[in-house]
TrEMBL record:
Top-level taxon of origin: Bacteria
Domain HTH luxR-type: from-to ranges: 135-200
InterPro entries assigned to the protein according to its UniProt record, in alphabetical order: Sig_transdc_resp-reg_C-effctor, Tscrpt_reg_LuxR_C, WH-like_DNA-bd_sf
SUPFAM superfamilies according to UniProt: C-terminal effector domain of the bipartite response regulators (SSF46894)
Transmembrane segments: none
Protein name: Response regulator transcription factor
UniProt cross-references to CDD domains, sorted A to Z: LuxR_C_like (cd06170)
Record lineage: Bacteria, Pseudomonadati, Pseudomonadota, Gammaproteobacteria, Oceanospirillales
Entry keyword set: DNA-binding, Transcription, Transcription regulation
Keyword set includes DNA-binding: yes
């Protein structure tokens, strides 16, 4: 039977964790190593000593890991993902968001906050050659405004930044981006840049 384990120091109990997952257990790193089984959802606090090794070890057992932080930052997020975590979020995230993270990672997705995801996407697009490697036949499927939105997103801009850049609303950006995804048969930003760069879109993880 799958369980939720929150691995933390004694003073880290957050009431909303139990509100999100009423059957959750708060455990020490030692207890997590002893009790974790394949398929368990394990949430690890990043203020624990040597937490990346703990995440790596539990991930190797088949557990599904999320790292929680009081001060999320890009470097720590990359450490978490490199160690085998599928999620990275604020320790004080609202109940609804914690449940959303759990849904995403359960369905083989990766969850990080949107701003970090945008930076990751932009860095990947540049690493793959950026606009010099654009596939014009792919862009030809899009309207002019959809193309502008797609390119801005691929460069690593958030929806808010794209809206400001193109002088449109965030709602309009989301609508155009949804149309881009449908036309290209993709589901996320990472797949968008892989498609634009003529890479195998199956390499992308389904995430936000």
């Amino acid at each position: 039977m799958m369980v939720h384990l929150f691995v933390c120091q004694g003073r880290d109990e957050i009431p909303r964790w139990r509100e999100a997952f009423p059957q959750a257990r708060l455990v020490s790193p030692q207890q997590a190593r002893a009790w974790t089984s394949r398929g368990d959802r394990v949430w690890v606090m990043s203020n624990l000593e040597n937490w990346p090794a703990l995440v790596s070890g539990l991930s190797g057992r088949g557990a599904i890991l999320t790292v929680l932080s009081y001060a999320p930052n890009s470097l720590e997020a990359f450490q978490a993902l490199n160690a085998g975590a599928r999620g990275y979020a604020h320790a004080l995230s609202p109940v609804a968001l914690l449940r959303q993270v759990e849904v995403v990672i359960t369905n083989q997705g990766i969850w990080v906050w949107p701003e970090l995801l945008a930076r990751v996407v932009g860095g990947t697009f540049k690493a793959l050659g950026g606009e010099s490697r654009l596939q014009e036949e792919t862009l030809a499927l899009l309207t002019g405004r959809e193309r502008a939105v797609a390119l801005a997103v691929a460069e690593g801009h958030s929806n808010k930044e794209v809206a400001r850049r193109l002088d449109i609303t965030e709602r309009t950006v989301k609508a155009h981006l949804g149309a881009v995804f449908r036309k290209l048969g993709i589901r996320d930003r990472m797949q968008l840049i892989l498609r634009l760069s003529h890479q195998d879109a199956s390499l992308s993880e389904p995430g936000r």
